[in-house]
Write a structure and sequence with these properties.
Elements (H helix, E strand, L loop, with lengths): L1 H26 L8 E7 L5 H7 L1 E8 L1 H8 L7 E10 L4 E7 L6 H9 L5 E11 L4 E8 L5 H41 L1 H8 L1 H7 L8 H14 L3 H17 L9 H12 L6 H9 L8 H28 L4 H37 L5 H29 L4 H18 L1 H17 L1 H13 L9 H6 L4 H15 L4 H12 L3 H11 L8 H23 L1
Antiparallel strand pairs: 1-2, 1-6, 2-3, 3-4, 4-5, 5-6
Amino acid sequence: MLNHIWLYLIIIGIGAALLVDIKDGIQDKYKTNAEIKTTIIINRQSDIEKIKKEKKFTADIIFHKEELKEIYGIDIEKDYTAKSSIVYDEHRDKMTAYLEIEKNAPWIIKEIAKGSGKDNDITAEIKLSNQIDEKSYKANITFEKIRFVKMKEITSAVFDFARTAVNIALGLIGIMALWLGVMKVAEEAGLTQIIAKGVKPITKRLFPDVPTDHPAMSAMIMNISANMLGLSNAATPFGLKAMEELDKLNPNKGTATNAMCMFLAINTAGFMLIPATAIAVRASLNSADPTIIIGTTIFGSSCATLTGILSAKLFERFSSGKFSFKDWLKSSYKKIIASFLFLTISIIFLIYGGVSIIARAFSFIKPELFKSIIEVISILAIPFVIFSFLIYGYAKKVKVYEKFVDGAKEGFNVAVKIIPYLVAMLCAIAIFRVGGGMDFLTLILNPITSLIGMPSEVLPMALMRPLSGSGSLGIMSEIMTTFGPDSRIGIMASTYFGSSETTFYVLALYFGSVNITRTRYALPVGLLADAAGIIGATFIVNLLF
């Protein structure tokens, strides 16, 4: 299924981009044949004939707001001035300007700059008319012909994201070496086995095919624990190590096992006790109560996790070819009742003051103080884990240096191996986003999502979260900046961030590390978990706020 989804992302992205470009061409959106009346202020001599002899000079080109409104139909507060370098071609008696486009430029000019292949450069032809004073002239300016803006943006985005994928993988080499070295020491000291035995009652039900004392079990536990606490830098290496160890138990190389699918179901569900990133963003935007999303995030991510686990178990039964719904219901009714009771109790708790209780518990923490606490935890948590693991290993007579180096050697190969998979997935996501696929899906899904109480303003956040962590973080920040972190929409967006995960990235990263090409039911399970997390978050935020 991942193959089909990957191809659909590309097809939808390119298709949407072509439709937009064709529509813009028919409507002549950029008016590239129009002569725009401007004022040019030459920065050197006043005699234009002398300047022409120099063949090159600099000038400020003033775009008047009335003229831009008449041609493009846009309203801007004041005239826009662009610095430019002007070249005179005496053979054709033609002046060409190269305009530097800054961030405060009107949006239409910035789009024309992108369409020309650069974000901060436009080429235009200039015809001088009347001289105003010693340095000023009236002039008509005609922009270069602009075609296929969206397609050019896709080309730039593909190259950028290909570089990003390689940078991510190369950046993981050092982190992988560090954490796999630490894990090797912990394994030799027996610490990981102790941790695994402590949670055996849970893990033996989730991963019945994985022995309790197998290195994969301890790596999965460390990964899940780090994700719950928001320590993503530690979680990824542990997750990659877990996949490597799970692959050693895999009888069919290249095909995902049930344990792999369950592990990724839990990962993509993204259960989180402390949504540290979202809370830190809320605090930076001066939220009156940045921690108010803890209760809603726990509820949303619990819905995602339960859905991920249950759907993974169901798919596992279906894939075996011996599944009987009646037998499954008979053998699992206790689990179903327990899950239903858990959700019911959670909803009742949150309805009848649960969020207020959580909020009051953290009310003594001011936004600035909480931000400092998050920073301290982020700084100290990883050094504490490294220190405690190494000291424990030393106390158990482990040759910590040699074992650390042995484990670190494995990190390089794993990090390099994932590059093709990251390039493929990130480039497909880039095409989908930049091409307008996100806008296309938003338009289609908006009538449906409005039925469950999801405001249209947060729909892009819900759609972006499974695709891109940085993209969803940017959308969340933008939503909270626009509507306020303590508005219902702001709370919902920040709850979404902690209630789901970047499913496509996680699958590409983890499966790529062990060359898994047949992912079986991992993707639908991950997407079901994401949907459950979003729906649960929407429900609880609408109920409470």
